[in-house]
Every structure is written in C-alpha cells, then in structure tokens.
Automatic annotation (TrEMBL):
Gene3D superfamilies: 2.40.160.20. The lineage of its organism: Bacteria, Pseudomonadati, Bacteroidota, Bacteroidia, Marinilabiliales. It comes from the Bacteria. This is Porin family protein. Residues 33-254 form the DUF6089 domain.
Length: 264
C-alpha cells in the first residue's frame, strides 16, 4: 500500500531559496579560496626559478689592535651556506650563514704597546649571518642573452656576529653568548657554468662596533683601561673588523623560464 503524501509538510519556497543561497554562498567562498590558493601556488612556483642555494668556503682573518692593517693575517678556515634570490639581471638579494675563525698573537706584526710585556694569543670561532644586496656591473644570467655568463659585483647590507664574550661581571669571569651588529661589504665575481650551476668568489669585510673580538681572558699584555689597550668601551676605539675571502657554488633550484620579458 503506497504511503500517502497528504500529511507530508511542504517546505516553504522562501526556505528553499534561503538554503540555495547559503549553499551558493559557501560554494562561492570555496571557489574563491581555491582560486586564491592556486594564485599563491602559481606565484611561489613562478618565483622559484629565481632561487639559488649553495655552499661557500674560504679563509677568514681579523683586523684590530693586534693587526691594524695586514691583510690575510693568521687566516682561519671558514664555511657556510648561501641563498640568493635573483631580482633582475643586475640585482640580487643574498643571505649567508657561516662559521668563521679569527686568530691573533702579541707581540707580532710589528705591534708594540707601551706597557705590553707578556705574550698573548687568541683563537676565536664566531657565527656570522648577513642579508646583502648584490649589484652586478654587467648584465648577468639574462634569459634572452647568451653572453651574460660572467660579471663582477659588489655587495652590501646588514649582518650579525655571534660569539662568546668574556665578562668579569657575570659569575666571576665567565663567557656569555652575544649578538652584535655588523656591516658587511664585499666585491667579487660570478660565473654561470650551465643552466643549473653557478660559481663565484668574494672578498668581504665585516665592520663591527665592538673592540673585544680579541679579548678572551684576563691575561692581556696591557692594562684594559689604558688607551692603547685591547678592550675599549668607548665608540672611538671600537675598531675590530674581520674579513672573509672564499669561493661559492650555487644551484638554480628550478630551470629559468624563458617567456618573453619574464620580469626582465
């Protein structure tokens, strides 16, 4: 026996329209979200062909009270990673993170202090991180010009140096990890080996605003309060620098697109 439809309540037309409009609203939102996600993924994929990742290695050395001007003074081994985002054929953003080592000794390098009688040496490992802008002197790695495989460049930016600072104020002659500001500047060249591999060499300097990179204990050959001493808290004597010279190899993570103009 068939069931009677006489007692089945009718759904008001307004409610049907409301359900339809709500469903349409959510479907529209989902569609917009999918479109947005697609656009974001497309943007990321489009930028990936401009990303280079690699490694670098070389020598680092110190410039300061113990070594006022000699280049490549007691060099130590340094190594790290490099990431580059290509903006145009003339500009690129470069990020680096590395471990550097600096050394020094006294008396050495024709440096004599008025009250310096005892010998002294230091050997310090430091962390270095920097974000720099690279400017290419010539067009480099242009997707439509086959002769842009080589360029000299300059780089400059902001960085930080991480090291153990000797302190007589904390726990009686202890060391604490500090982060200090550094100003990196460098010169170098880059060469495109093929569609994927690039090699380069750079000589860079880090200007710091401290005077204790060579200060690793109490056995200093001079009185720290003396104007000719190692460690000076005044800005006038904050003259410690360090330098890095090395080579790098990077890999383009995705093959460079060759559509017309493609951002160039």
């Amino acid at each position: 026996m068939a069931a009677s439809n006489k007692n089945v309540p009718k759904v008001p037309k307004e409610m049907k329209l409301r359900k339809l409009s709500v469903g349409y609203y959510f479907n529209t939102i989902k569609s917009k979200m999918l479109i947005l996600l697609f656009m974001m993924a497309f943007g990321i994929a489009k930028s990936q062909d401009r990303i280079e990742l690699g490694v670098m290695a070389g020598a680092s050395y110190y410039i300061g009270d113990l070594n006022p001007q000699k280049q490549f003074y007691k060099p130590g081994f340094s190594y790290g990673g490099i990431a580059r985002y290509v903006l145009t054929d003339r500009f690129a953003l470069k990020g680096t993170a590395s471990m550097v080592r600096i050394k020094g000794s006294y008396p050495d390098n024709d440096v004599l202090f008025p009250e310096g009688e005892q010998t002294y040496s230091f050997n310090r490992a430091m962390g270095d991180a920097a974000l720099q802008m690279e400017f290419n002197f010539t067009s480099y790695d242009h997707p439509f010009i086959g002769t842009t495989n080589f360029t000299p460049f300059i780089s400059f930016g902001l960085g930080t140096t991480i090291y153990k600072r000797f302190s007589t104020d904390i726990e009686n002659n202890s060391e604490q990890t500090v982060f200090i500001l550094s100003l990196p500047i460098g010169v170098g060249f880059k060469y495109k080996v093929n569609k994927w591999v690039r090699v380069g060499a750079e000589w860079s300097f880090r200007k710091t605003f401290v005077d204790d990179l060579d200060y690793v204990g109490n056995n200093l050959p001079v009185n720290p309060d003396d104007p000719y001493g190692f460690y000076q808290e005044t800005t006038l004597h904050n003259n410690d620098w360090y330098s890095f010279a090395g080579v790098s190899i990077t890999v383009s993570m995705f093959r460079r697109k060759t559509e017309c103009n493609s951002g160039y």
